[in-house]
């Protein structure tokens, strides 16, 4: 069985090859290794989840919302 580092390496490599072919470029897309933390309690899961879901908004990008998405995210992130 593969560990998470090997799985992430395969994902990064595959996506880099795909993106480079699609955009007719070469080289790296990602800098360094992925960063991962162990979340061992449900309460600790809320903070990383909020960061991940709010990153596009904080970056000022337009976020296309799908029907029902706000309700689901609000439930997951405990936001009303």
UniProtKB/TrEMBL annotation:
Top-level taxonomic group: Bacteria
GO biological process: DNA transposition
Signal peptide: none
Name of the protein: Transposase
InterPro entries: Transposase_17_sf
GO MF terms held by the record: DNA binding; transposase activity
Gene3D superfamilies: Transposase IS200-like (3.30.70.1290)
PANTHER family named among the record's database cross-references: TRANSPOSASE IS200-LIKE DOMAIN-CONTAINING PROTEIN, TRANSPOSASE, Y1_TNP DOMAIN-CONTAINING
Organism: Candidatus Brocadia sapporoensis
